[in-house]
């Protein structure tokens, strides 16, 4: 039985407790043993983290001790999967660049705020994470992010739709979902999920389910292949 840890908290506007419960249900249905925690101290036991298959952060706009980030980073580098959504993963710790480097991006704006109707365009790729999924529309926050150019983009959305200081720039396709590697660990992110009702949209929920499973499979694949990762301990000047 695979083991997953969901850690929720931070800004209540993202309904972290409710989103964490949805994710718990998804993982239990896939026969995971799931631990749910509402404290960042869940990241304090480095060896325990390395014994997991998947870590799911659901924590927005907070500060975190560097040692806790180092522990998560080391676990993912060793093969543990990391998967999350919206501000719960890529607006978790704005001051910590190590976290941002690991996750692949950082939220910077949502022009038009909540209620923007936009299209999510699924990329044609070899990734099984988007097989059989078509473009779809959603009414929510449309995330503008600073994104690691190394990620594999699975879905995008077109900017601008709402007016703002960015509007006179050329149109851009902003990543909505992506994967990347951190050491031998797999990382999945989806910018959808402002609140629980967005996660409950069947297509969004299915994308998250596939992301969870893909990330959790990475550890076994790495062990089978006998691959290892050189330890990366972060940057000394990574946060204020």
TrEMBL record:
<dbReference type="InterPro" id="IPR029062">
    <property type="entry name" value="Class_I_gatase-like"/>
</dbReference>
<protein>
    <recommendedName>
        <fullName>ThuA-like domain-containing protein</fullName>
    </recommendedName>
</protein>
<dbReference type="InterPro" id="IPR029010">
    <property type="entry name" value="ThuA-like"/>
</dbReference>
<dbReference type="Pfam" id="PF06283">
    <property type="entry name" value="ThuA"/>
</dbReference>
<feature type="domain" description="ThuA-like">
    <location>
        <begin position="3"/>
        <end position="215"/>
    </location>
</feature>
